[in-house]
Amino acid sequence: MGLFDFFKKKTQREKPKPSTRQTVKSTVKKTIIKQTYSEQEFKSLQLQKEMMAFALWKYEEHNQNYDKVRAEISKMEGSKFTAEQVDFLVESLRVWNIRAEEKERFDATVQQVQGLLNEGKVKPAFQLIYDIYLENKAHINLVGLLVQVADMFMEETAILELFDELKTKNPDEKYNLEYRKALFLKDKKAYVEAILTFVSLNKEHNFAWNHYQIAIIENLRGNKESCFKYLEQTFELDPTLKADARQFSELQNLWKEEGFIKLTT
């Protein structure tokens, strides 16, 4: 299994972001809009999906000009979008494009790294990721890749020191870096240290995924009641994680438990 496949497996619970825009134009159909959209109707995922496809089509058609996309949406036959709704769609397109570009750059980096690893050049692969991350500090996924490669030749203590170094160089991402340090500790079965790190993060910002990770660790430790307690806290903050819990392998031993079923339905 290549590094790219391994990394995708490690981040399986993160929804994949689109990496290409090549097939959109061929699948988009013009939609005649004949009524004013209420806020509830506008928030429909299906409507926004259709409009994002339309906006992306026009973005490519008009040489990546957002003003022209705005005009195309506003003048659609029968369109009754408010100015605020048009602004939302254009900004959503802008964010989508940024994420797509980041994903493409990340995939290219993974391919470069895999090539170096295939040649046995582990330290140059590490340095490549390190340098790219410092140039693009907002791309936190590079940290996961960096740690995977570091784990091929560095001691655990050195990797923990690496997290501290990255926090110094990129203080704006301190929370995200600390979260990934906790995940690293979890992977190394340093469960107590991982839990303490997630608890500390919650004191700074109460985040559903911190509770979720503690619940998973408690299950791995055989502490079922504590796991259920943290799952309950998780779902209070983010009910959408119920679906993830019902399919996440590290909770599979609980799937038929009455308490688990009650929490996740």
What does it look like?
With 265 residues, this protein is mainly α. It has a domain at 22-101. The protein has helices at residues 3-10, 24-27, 39-42, 45-61, 66-74, 83-118, 122-135, 141-150, 156-169, 174-187, 191-204, 208-220, 224-237, 241-245, 258-264. Helix 4 (45-61) packs across helix 6 (83-118) and helix 10 runs antiparallel to helix 11 (191-204). The protein starts with a helix and ends with a helix. The relative contact order is 0.07. Mean pLDDT is 83; it is low at 6-36.
Q: List the secondary-structure elements in sequence, H or E.
A: HHHHHHHHHHHHHHH
Strand content: under 5%
Class by helix and strand content? mainly alpha
The low-confidence parts are: 6-36
Mean pLDDT equals: 83
Biggest sheet features: none
What's the alpha carbon Rg, rounded to whole Å? 22 Å
Form type = globular
Count of helical regions: 15
Q: State the end-to-end distance.
A: 35 Å
List how many beta strands DSSP finds: 0
Helix content: 55-70%
